[in-house]
Amino acid sequence: MIKMKKIASKNIWVLVITFLSSVMNAQITEDDYLVANDYTLGEGWTFSGSSGYKMKISGLIQPSIDVEYNEDSIADPNSTRARLRRLRLRINGEYEPARIQYRIQVDLGGVPEVDNSQSTRLLHAYLTYRFNKRHRIIIGQKVNPVNSREMTMNSGTMQLVDRSKLTSAFNTIFEFGLFSESTIRLNSRSYLRALTSITSGDGDVPMGNDIGGLKYGLRLDYLPNGLFTRYGQYRQVDLVRERTPKLVFGARGSFNEGISSRRGRAQGSILYLDQDFKTSLPNYWQLGADFLFKFRGVSILGEYVYADASVPSDISYRVRNDGSTSSSFLIDGIQNVDSYVKNRMMVGHGYNIQGGYILKNGVSFDARYCYLQAPEYSFLHNGTFYSRPEAITLGLSKYFVRWYGFKMQSSITRFSVDGATSPIGEVLTRPEWFIQFITSILI
To answer: What Å distances lie between residue 400 and 41, 202, 239, 440, CA to CA?
Structure first.
């Protein structure tokens, strides 16, 4: 399986380079040139050429301030952080005669989507071939559509300052592989969308040899009242104030064969071996359901996720961080391989419900409730990062232009604690408070 993944990864890159070369060779001729003919704040610059080639350049700037408070933290009950949350550049291109589209997006701020570590990141890099208006195939790196619905929404269009804890706990975000999207019209009003993915299962484009098997995913979306206006299915607030109720129900599932991390967001961070010191890894899967409703300024988003894993019976050793191996799988003083492995993975379930109303003057009032439920052995119990099962958030936003071009947002979140600890190891028993401010400019 590992050898097959190496071959598949190399072939994918060959196809990407071939497609890019075809686009570049076809888009520019001696008699053709690009002309900037449109700019809209929040939508970017659009360039077009006489041969049918179009390109759009856009960006996102989000400076933010976070304030965290907990009375139990003697060393530092208040902590404040100011940072550039996102600094992104995106290029979209389309060559209509060949039915080819592409997207390249980078984050120059170097802050991952749902993590606090620092690393400059390639976000999107993919090519799309359209068979027709309703069916397309995509190759490269992008947000996996089998993630939760909130994760498939643009960072500049979020209803609250940040995404929910459900998203940070279970989502893999960007993945590299092959994707398909199909839209089927059932009758005069209703539609069914089918989205599939086959990815490396290691998150972002891996720089080394792939470990484990592939990840397979499927999402089905049912829209009973027609399509949303201006891509509203992928934007949280109802800025367009839908004139008729718009609704989408979604069901999704994914299966990651041989996972080498907590949820499939990294490569080779957690490894296990059998008696012959050959790789033996657990399988990981997720099931989820969600919905989105919009009507006349009201928007409601609901999501549920269930995640679990199966542990091979032949696991005999674990690989330590320094590369050495150990046959010890002690947990609560008992040798238990199954419990030890699952205790290092994001298994459990949770739900997120959020909603809001935007006034005609651009002021939006929003709220969210998120709850995570972990089994006895799960990394969701990790004291520093995840042992906060309940989060209640209130938000206030002001949109200064219609299409998300410029907005200012604030929120306050109350986190319950369940065995949580501070970064220096202090046991927390009282709720944590988290206040956030962010300014978002889509150029």
So the answer is: 11, 39, 11, 11
Decide: helix, strand or coil at residue 340: helix
Q: What is the DSSP annotation of 204-240?
A: SPPSS---S--EEEEEEEEETT-PPGGGGGG-SS-TT
The Cα 309–Cα 311 span in angstroms is 7
Among all chains, which residue has been given the structure tokens 């590299």?
Answer: 176
Q: Provide the residue ranges of all domains of the chain, joining segments of one domain with +.
A: 2-442
- Eight-state DSSP code of residue 157: G
Cα gap 19→27, rounded to integer Å: 12
As assigned by CATH, the class of the 2-442 domain is mainly beta
The residue behind tokens 């399986």 is: 1
The residue type of 248 is V
Binned average pLDDT, 10 residues per bin, the chain of 443 residues: 44 50 48 64 84 90 91 68 91 93 89 52 92 95 94 91 94 92 94 96 72 94 95 92 96 96 88 96 97 98 98 96 94 95 97 97 97 95 87 97 91 89 74 94 90
Q: Which residues, listed in sequence order, are joined to residue 117 by a DSSP beta bridge? A: none
Cβ(336)–Cβ(293) under 8 Å? no
Pinpoint the alpha helices (H) of 147-296.
165-170
Cite the DSSP H helix spans in 41-164.
none
The reply to whether the predicted model has a pTM over 0.85 is yes
Residues 6 or more apart whose CB falls under 8 angstroms from that of 41 comprise 401, 403, 405, 406, 442, 443
CA dihedral 270, 271, 272, 273 (to 10 degrees): -170
Distance CA 259, CA 5 (A): 13
